[in-house]
Design brief:
The structure is a single chain. The chain is of the alpha+beta class. It has 3 domains: 99 residues, no CATH class; 106 residues, DNA polymerase, domain 1 (Orthogonal Bundle), CATH 1.10.150; 135 residues, hpI Integrase, Chain A, CATH 1.10.443. 46% of the residues lie in helices and 14% in strands. The protein has 15 helices and 10 strands. Helix 12 packs antiparallel against helix 13. The protein starts with a strand and ends in a 7-residue tail after the last helix. Keywords: DNA recombination, DNA-binding. One of its GO terms (molecular function) is DNA binding. InterPro entries: DNA_brk_join_enz, Integrase-like_cat_sf, Integrase_catalytic, Integrase_recombinase_N, SAM-like_dom, Tyrosine_recombinase_XerCD.
Length: 425
């Protein structure tokens, strides 16, 4: 880091001073309230001229510049230590310096005021996820807003103050009870809300705000249960591909978009924006919206046919919810998807067992799960599939794909046949 001082208006009789802070390829101009007659400024030393009887305050003036330079470097080091060595953006560094130098008086920060600022920074693209080291996505930000609304409702209904000091183990228990009994959310949705609270508390603590440390305890857990999700096998995908939708252009476009997801493993937020510039030498190269990670995927023949059908300019994406509705309209046209699927989950504290026709469970995310499961069944190396889906561990990947006991048995039999273990002796 380099800190150099300059006059803001060197040609005027008097001028204020600013610090030009250069670090890691970034630059910040930080303006000071200090001013002096420009004739008494030494551009070489970047300080007031010494031994100047016309400006006897020069020792104190230069000392203040020395102190500020030390403060700048100290604040920068502390920020990096507190943020896993991340480099602050110039706007972030300015904000911290304003507080450190007393330009900005820090008001008493409440949990809700901090949370609202957290959301505001997220919406402006100023908040960086500590996990991905990238700006957070709009969908992620919507979830945080929902959590904030639930917290405010909890505080109002129970006349119980929610603040940094009160978010403890007792709060954790009572809040889960509220989300379960009053709001009647599922276990995994409750877990998402707890996870967001932990994230906000963690960021606040890293910024020097005094918080209750219970959120770091193993007792401040994120509720979770394994869920039943479907995938579409290769035969079912062929049926969807071959379905005559010539009388409904809207459903035909939705079907085509969905199939791209099924044969690329991309999320809806990625395959819905696929364009010609993402295709190079029969390879799809795209930076994922959720993680900002770059993935490279070979163009499947089905995907290539769809891209050529639209001259590599896919129809404008519709909302995720609308597409989910239309996918069910497509699925219900296939008798093969009338098979009943039984789901078991916990909602509102009650265990629910309910059966649905398979088509009723199809959503945009079914495409990605179908890709992962079908490639696994086909014998594609797990590490190769994970490179596309983005799963970090094999354990997480195997939880993600959905295989029945029969499919596991068939997979084992297929491997035996490859090794000629089933030949007649």
């Amino acid at each position: 880091m380099e800190v150099r001082y300059y006059l803001k208006r060197p040609k005027d009789a008097t001028s204020t001073v600013f610090a030009r802070i250069c670090y890691e390829g970034l630059q910040l101009k930080y303006y000071l309230s200090e001013n002096l007659p420009t004739a008494y400024w030494d551009a070489t030393s970047q300080r007031a001229l010494k031994d100047n009887k016309a400006f006897p305050e020069y020792p104190e003036f230069n000392a203040r510049l020395d102190i500020l330079e030390h403060t700048i470097k100290m604040v920068f080091r502390k920020y990096r230590n507190d943020h896993d060595q991340r480099i602050p953006e110039p706007a972030e560094l300015k904000g911290i310096l304003d507080i450190a130098t007393g330009k900005k008086v820090v008001k008493q920060v409440t949990f809700f005021s901090y949370y609202e600022d957290f959301n505001s920074r997220s919406e402006k693209g100023e908040r960086i996820s500590p996990k991905t080291k990238q700006k957070t996505s709009p969908n992620t930000n919507k979830g945080y807003l929902t959590t904030l609304n639930h917290l405010k409702a909890f505080q109002q209904q129970y006349s119980r103050k929610v603040d940094f000091a009160t978010i403890d183990i007792r709060f954790h228990s009572d809040y889960i009870s509220y989300l379960t009994s009053t709001v009647k959310l599922s276990i995994n949705t409750i877990g998402d809300h707890i996870k967001r609270i932990i994230t906000v508390m963690g960021e606040a603590k890293s910024r020097g705000i005094e918080v209750c440390n219970d959120f770091e305890s193993s007792y401040f857990f994120k509720p979770h249960e394994e869920t039943d999700s479907i995938y579409l096998n290769e035969a079912e995908l062929k049926l969807i591909e071959g379905l005559d939708l010539s009388g409904n252009a809207k459903l035909a476009r939705v079907r085509d978009m969905f199939l791209i997801g099924c044969y690329t493993g991309l999320r809806f937020s990625d395959y819905s924006v696929l364009r010609r510039e993402h295709i190079k030498d029969d390879l799809i190269e795209i930076r994922q919206a959720k993680t900002s990670n770059k993935v490279v995927i070979p163009v499947h023949p089905v995907v290539k046919a769809i891209l050529e059908k639209y001259d590599y300019s896919l129809p404008r994406a519709i909302s995720n919810q609308k597409m989910n509705d239309y996918l069910k309209d497509i699925g219900k046209q296939l008798p093969e998807l009338e098979a009943q699927i039984t789901l078991t989950y916990t909602k509102g504290g009650n265990k629910i067992i309910q059966s649905y026709p398979k088509w009723a469970l199809i959503s945009t995310h079914t495409a990605r799960r179908s890709f992962a499961t079908n490639e696994y069944l086909a014998g594609t190396p797990v590490v190769t599939i994970m490179a596309i889906t983005g799963h970090r561990t094999e354990k997480a990947f195997l939880r993600y794909i959905k295989l029945t006991s029969t499919e596991h048995a068939k997979l084992l039999k297929m491997h035996w046949e490859k090794r000629n273990l089933l030949r007649v002796v």
